[in-house]
């Protein structure tokens, strides 16, 4: 299993009235982590879009464990949790600098044609991308961890 890491410097604007990172900002960090993972594997979302495809989020789940605050640095760890014919699930951990788990999450995505928004198989549209995801994913299709 391949894990990508991206450090995020927490800005004051990302915090709420309680002085902790506002919950919706974690979703932005997931996107940053996912983009970094894809780049680390040799691909880009921009490249996918230039070919006429998009990869919308179909589900996201976040469990908040320990608050993060302005001035801290977050480490976003991202991996391919599951990858099938039509869906890819990414896994995430967001960690404090000392390694304490701040949040864990998953997001599910499909690839669609830009004009029609109809799902397409990533295996057909981007065979190299599909093969790389098969190689680095955490779970086999039967749920067994690699």
Automatic annotation (TrEMBL):
CDD domains: 4HBT. GO terms for molecular function: fatty acyl-CoA hydrolase activity. It is an enzyme of class 3 (hydrolase). Pfam families: 4HBT_2 (PF13279). The keyword Hydrolase applies. It comes from the Bacteria. Its EC number is 3.1.2.-. Keywords: Hydrolase. InterPro entries: 4-hydroxybenzoyl-CoA_TE, HotDog_dom_sf, YbgC/YbaW. Belongs to the 4-hydroxybenzoyl-CoA thioesterase family. This is Acyl-CoA thioester hydrolase. It comes from Planococcus koreensis.
């Amino acid at each position: 299993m391949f894990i990508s890491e991206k450090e995020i410097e927490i800005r004051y604007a990302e915090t709420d009235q309680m002085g902790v990172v506002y919950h919706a900002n974690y979703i932005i960090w997931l996107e940053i982590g996912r983009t970094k993972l894809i780049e680390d594997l040799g691909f880009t979302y921009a490249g996918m879009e230039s070919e006429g495809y998009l990869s919308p989020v179909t589900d996201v789940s976040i469990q908040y464990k320990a608050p993060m605050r302005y001035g801290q640095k977050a480490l976003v760890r991202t991996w391919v949790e599951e990858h099938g014919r039509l869906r890819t699930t990414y896994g995430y951990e967001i960690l404090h600098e000392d390694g304490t788990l701040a949040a864990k999450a998953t997001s599910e995505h499909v690839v669609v044609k830009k004009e029609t928004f109809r799902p397409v198989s990533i295996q057909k549209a981007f065979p190299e991308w599909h093969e790389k995801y098969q190689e680095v994913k955490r779970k086999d299709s039967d749920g067994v961890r690699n």
